[in-house]
Amino acid sequence: MRSSTAFRLWLLTAAFTLHADQPLPAELEGVGIQEQLGAQIDLNLTFTDENGRQAPLKQYFEQGKPVLLNLVYYQCPMLCNLILNGQTSTLREIPWTPGNEFEIVTISIDPTETFELAAHKKQSYLASYNRPAPGWHFLTDHQGNAKRLADQVGFHYRRDDRTGQYAHAAVLTFLTPEGKVSRYLYGIHFKARDMRLALTEASESKFGLSVDRLLLFCFHYDPRARAYVLFAANVMRGGGVLTVLILAFVMWRMWRFEKRLAAAGVAAR
Questions:
Q1: Nearest CA among 196, 229, 194, 226 for reference residue 17
Q2: CATH class assigned to 2-212
Q3: Over the stretch 109-150, which tens digit does the pLDDT of each residue have?
């Protein structure tokens, strides 16, 4: 009975994540994402890391890198695993590595979960990722700070007292190097392009290859599509600038050619 109730709760949560415009069932009252784009999180909040040490959030922002934030819980029977599995699968498709270009901070919203659980989860996902990821951190709650952080990023969840499971949205939250909310990506499957653009955007365009900054100029996040989509106005604007540059280059070449012809004529006389 308990497992079937948890499964129904997961189905409702997943369905609501994909169709947020639908009426809320009773189990999901108060559950969802209230986007807080630009909001500053409290970097002085402390958590317990996978080694059992107290860790302030600010230590994960000291290198000036964007941060991908997961709010999950480690004994989640389904949805959290699907989110992390989807994230890991996408991370394998991009050339950047947690700890080099960005950080990942995964935090349990269940205050009863221990750092031993976090360590086990970390070991499992790093094995699945199949390459070193020194910048992927697994934390547990400390003095209710997981709830405080969740409120700051607009991540609202609810515990089912009968099953002990949590109803919550399927979402990745991207933070700037200063700890401000930059972007949310929803669902359990993530496009590599969307992941790269979200990280590039969170880095305030200082991070990523030039091609990613160019893509970020051409692609804008569409809240209705919940993805980065081609932004025609910027493409047209970019095409206009390119046309001007090409014309300027052609005119410069013509001017150089005419100048050489004139110089040749003077020399012949």
A1: 226
A2: alpha beta
A3: 999 999 999 999 999 999 999 999 999 999 999 999 999 999
